[in-house]
Amino acid sequence: MTGDAVITTCGLTRRFGTFTALREVTLSVPRASIFGMLGPNGAGKSTLLRVLCGILVPDAGRVVVRGQLSLLRPGLGVSDITGSRPPSSSRFAGKISR
User: Fold this and answer.
1) What is the pLDDT of residue 18?
2) Is the pLDDT of residue 81 over 90?
3) If 0-12 CB within 10 Å is exposed, 13-18 middle and 19+ buried, where does residue 72 land?
4) Gap between the Cα atoms of 92 and 35, Å rounded
5) pTM of this prediction?
6) CA-CA distance, 7 to 27, in Å (whole number)?
7) Are 13 and 22 in contact (CB under 8 A)?
8) DSSP string covering 85-96
9) 3-state DSSP assignment of residue 39
10) What are phi and psi of 56, to 5 degrees?
11) φ and ψ at 80, to 5 degrees?
12) Residue range 32-76, pLDDT digits in tens
């Protein structure tokens, strides 16, 4: 992983009961880059985004945002630097237009 990374994860794991949604995810997103996650339904994309935003706590591993361990700084998450919001935090969630 590079020193100019703005987001870094190492060994990130998140389980829901016996189901492992994220298994040892390690990634590095360099400063001033565009990063996307592609995969089929159930691949863990939304879970990863929720962990990166600080909505979910990982069972193992770490998340570093701008050089600071995000779990040690409550409220520090990817949404603070990207404006990204996972689907569950949408202001339109649960609203149906007719």
Assistant:
1) 96
2) no
3) exposed
4) 24
5) 0.71
6) 8
7) yes
8) --GGG-TTTT--
9) coil
10) -115, 150
11) -65, -30
12) 888 888 999 999 999 998 888 778 889 999 988 887 776 655 555
